[in-house]
Write the structure tokens for this entry.
Amino acid sequence: MLWFERQVVLALTDGLDDEKQAAIAAHVDGALGAMPEHIRLGVGVQSVALGAWTRGRGALWGRRSPGLDVDVASFEVSRLGPVRQYVRALRYLVLFAEHELTPGAGG
């Protein structure tokens, strides 16, 4: 999992304890690794681009950016469809991981 993907997953699981966050991050990492290469490439390119945007914005301000959770929230309502879809895809992977890791939920 790339750095920015991990940061988004941690932002989407904010409020959970560290053990659950780590388990969900590992599950999402496995799901990303199991994606067909052409899909994984697209997600990876978006991760690099959005990560560069987030870091660059902080560098331009001369201080740290306001926080990744704010970025995730702004990405979810972006006018750019691919940006919205990126966060939506990671949110679905997080929700799937939460469901799969809940005892007794798998059937």
About this structure: Residues 57 and 93 are 27 Å apart (CA to CA).
